[in-house]
């Protein structure tokens, strides 16, 4: 039985990856953090109840604590490590830059160094990000596009990207970067823009929230479905040689388009008024204000346009996304309306 160790198992991707690997017959070990409130909601169904899987085991640890990582690596002796743990919110990284750098940047080094010492044949996946491309200089972005990080989050992920490449080259580790563009799902954290919108719509329709307050509506993102993307992570580690891959849909949409489509799925057509910080969206039938803008949600430096070129993943991994942008928006809206 193959063994996988996942950091960030309680997150969106960690939960889908766990399900995917358990289905493939892996024994899955996850690192969880101690917290004062329950943080295992996304994997609770795998830990207890009718769908509980005895091949899922969780352990306390933290990416900022090298001893905990090393002990787990020694104890579990995994075949594959998926390093998904991170302070993953770009805007928050401006508020906690040092912690973000520690967990996202040095955390990756801690794991790689431990693998080098303890079990150098472990295959290592690093959750790299399209945020590395930052200030756009080339469209679409592929594995050869230069990086230009625009946040403490992206700068930390840049270090993690290069230390992964360096440990591969210096110590012959099977260490790979998946440069994943934005991917979403009903399990997406509630403060990321897509989920904030779909959950907000549900709350508005149920009378629990008055309106949505957003930031930059003009940012463009290449949004895919998280469940499709965790398959790519696994495929990257099954290749004969360790390489880095861009995983994306090849389509880009503005936050504004996401809003329009999401409200449309809920039966509401938006009518936009005003400009810049005074822009707002009204229900075109009733005139009710549904979206306003607040500068609080703007970032000191923004990533304006992300559009990935997944050609390498298509040809070498035979990977392609199955869920379209329209389907993704629909399934997120429907899920939040149902719950
Ligand atoms: P989430 O925010 O949903 O999950 C992050 C996970 O990391 C959580 O399990 C969290 O634990 C854990 N974590 C945070 N800090 C630490 C720490 N110090 N030590 C150990 N674990 C920690 O992120 P996603 O699932 O969306 O993303 C997974 C990874 O992929 C992240 O590294 C993210 O930066 C990266 N990425 C994500 C993309 C996306 O669009 N989703 C695109 C490209 C890259 P807890 O539950 O306790 O908070
Ligand atoms: P991102 O995702 O920064 O791309 O990082 P997020 O959903 O936070 O922002 C996307 C775009 O929407 C704009 N925006 C808002 N964002 C949030 N969170 N809240 C708002 O109210 C709002 N209004 C407008 C943002 O300015 C931005 O342009 C995600 C994370 O998962 C990272 O970990 C990952 O690396 C990248 O995707 C790829």
TrEMBL record:
Biological-process GO terms, alphabetical: 'de novo' GDP-L-fucose biosynthetic process
CDD domains: GDP_MD_SDR_e
Enzyme nomenclature, EC number: 4.2.1.47
A GO molecular function held by the record: GDP-mannose 4,6-dehydratase activity
UniProt keyword terms in alphabetical order: Lyase, NADP
Pfam families linked to this entry: GDP_Man_Dehyd
CC cofactor: NADP(+)
Residue stretches making up the NAD(P)-binding domain: 5-332
Recorded catalytic activity of this chain's protein: GDP-alpha-D-mannose = GDP-4-dehydro-alpha-D-rhamnose + H2O
Enzyme class: lyase
Function as written in the Swiss-Prot or TrEMBL entry: Catalyzes the conversion of GDP-D-mannose to GDP-4-dehydro-6-deoxy-D-mannose.
Family: Belongs to the NAD(P)-dependent epimerase/dehydratase family. GDP-mannose 4,6-dehydratase subfamily.
Protein's recorded name: GDP-mannose 4,6-dehydratase
Organism of origin: Ruminiclostridium hungatei
